[in-house]
Amino acid sequence: GENVEQHPSTLSVQEGDSAVIKCTYSDSASNYFPWYKQELGKRPQLIIDIRSNVGEKKDQRIAVTLNKTAKHFSLHITETQPEDSAVYFCAASKGSYGKLTFGQGTILTVHP
Amino acid sequence: EPEVTQTPSHQVTQMGQEVILRCVPISNHLYFYWYRQILGQKVEFLVSFYNNEISEKSEIFDDQFSVERPDGSNFTLKIRSTKLEDSAMYFCASSALAGGRTGELFFGEGSRLTVL
Questions:
Q1: Residue B109 has pLDDT above 70, yes or no
Q2: What is the pLDDT of chain B when averaged over all its residues?
Q3: Which residue among A29, A93, B40, B114 is least crowded, i.e. fewest CB within 10 A of its CB?
Q4: Interatomic CA distance for residues A14 and B111, integer angstroms
Q5: In chain B, what residues touch A34 (CB-CB under 8 Å)?
Q6: Is A43's CB within 8 Å of B104's CB?
Q7: Residues of chain B contacting residue A89, judged by C-beta atoms under 8 Å apart
Q8: Of B44, B95, B107, which is closest to A43 when you measure between CB atoms?
Q9: Is A3 helix (H, G, I), strand (E, B) or coil?
Q10: What is the per-residue pLDDT across A19-46, written as a single tens digit (0 to 9) for each?
């Protein structure tokens, strides 16, 4: 089955810096790659997603890039703010049936 | 904005007892899921449900687990005889099939299950 590896496990940055989180996946049939943000004790919330027919997607300070050949995708957050502090999970899926395979998560801490 | 709602938010039970976790998915969604997250670990897929039947399940979802959509709004997860290792946060999720952002999952707030 699919296996998703995520790095780093923790990331500490100063407010205003950029943060990059990377994921690799194993199943070349995967075609949907969402990123979820989870604040302590809360539900995971989708922040951005990308499908395998595009290489990059941007939404304000957040961007995701996908390299299908290398089977990796990355989350980029620019101009980080303290409220960006949370656990970020990448995930991969083969279709629209909702079986997401999640990465291990990255604890992002943004220091004021 | 519509949300997935779950009850109870926290349940404490004794090992061997049955528990039922309840979810109300977003009303026009067609796919329903249960995921779990053991404290400090990744979110894991348990089961997906479509058209009143299981469409896919993981190896975690053994005979102790069952799902049901007893009416037009609720979606339940039953654990027949709980074990200590079932202690986790259980998330219900739903997604729409057609139109909009197909594949996006909307998660509930979770039900924390503690098995003593």
A1: yes
A2: 90
A3: B40
A4: 34
A5: 103-105
A6: no
A7: 42-43
A8: B107
A9: coil
A10: 999 999 999 988 889 999 999 888 999 9
Closest by CA to B42, choosing from B63, B60, B16, B56, is B60
Q: How far is B33 from chain A (nearest CA, A)?
A: 7
Question: Mean pLDDT, to the nearest integer, of A81-101?
Answer: 87
Residue B56 has its nearest CB partner, among A32, A34, A99, at A99
Q: How close A94 gets to chain B, by Cα (Å)?
A: 10
Token output for A22: 């990377």
Task: Show the tokens assigned to A55.
Answer: 């290489």
pLDDT per residue as tens digits for the range B26-39: 988 888 999 999 98
What is the distance, to the nearest Å, from the Cα of residue A68 to the centroid of all Cα atoms in its chain? 15
Considering chain B, what percentage of its residues have pLDDT values greater than 90? 70
Contact B91 A98 (CB under 8 A): no
CA closest to B106 among chain A residues: A45
Residue B81 CB neighbour total at 10 angstroms = 12
Residue A44 and residue B109: Cβ atoms within 8 Å? no
Q: How far is CA A41 from CA A73, B41, B109, B111, in A?
A: 26, 13, 8, 11
Cα B50 from Cα B29, distance rounded (Å): 10
Confidence band, pLDDT 50/70/90 cuts, at residue B97: low
